[in-house]
Amino acid sequence: MKQYDFYIVPTPIGNLGDITKRAIDVLKSVDIIACEDIRVTQKLLNHFDIKTKCISYHKFNEKERINKFLEILGEGKKIALVSDAGTPLICDPGAVVVDELRKSGFKITALAGANAVVTFLSQIPREDEQFKFIGFMPKNEQQIVQIISENQNTDLVFYESPNRILKTLKLIQSTFPSVKIAVGRELTKMFEEVIIDNVENILTYFETTVPKGEFVCLIYRNMKQTGDYDLDKKIKKLQKKNFKAKEISVILSELYDLNKNEVYKRILEL
Prior knowledge:
With 270 residues, the protein is an alpha/beta fold. The protein has helices at residues 21-29, 38-47, 62-74, 95-103, 116-121, 141-150, 165-175, 199-208, 231-240, 245-256, 260-269; strands at residues 6-8, 32-35, 53-56, 79-81, 108-110, 132-136, 156-160, 180-185, 193-198, 215-219.
């Protein structure tokens, strides 16, 4: 079996039963586990009777930990990196140290495991496989509106916290009042909830239900609202030039970064 110096190990996003046997084996076999919050990780380790020593590694001490990791690895020891939940480096710390370790020639591998985005997307209907994931929405309202507006022609996926979800939903509604969205929370846990509806209904629901848990959201692409370029006018203009439906869908998808299949569907609807 190939040996690595540094292991990136996903941990469950909720249900502890989702951890893999390989993850448990790696966490038991390494010399050090680097984690965001030792208290959080220790609960997981205690559950699976893992005795490995932990040291803190988070976004506030990433750079200063690099020398410590280099020292440990230089002694021939092994390190595993975990986040509080899910996969490290995906909206979690890790990129800084991984970059440095690769430059220093250490062997790194990542285990397969839990990820909130994949878990969420695998249980909601979508037109195709294309989507854009932006991590957490920014706190600035103007930036949120700008992101929503700029990505209206793609399925936009993002994380949100329970104390900010209502604010973000209101901004989505004010930008595109009738847009369809999907919202998931408490994924893999006992009170898991996934809702797909127009933004107004979902906003009303969470205004009357205290939002708890971390949220994963998707704003469905909105082909009927196409910003400064009026899609229907573009289609009709090209039709007058005797372009066929397939040709038009290719032209507009290339010019305006639209989904070709959605454009074709819109042509047939006109």
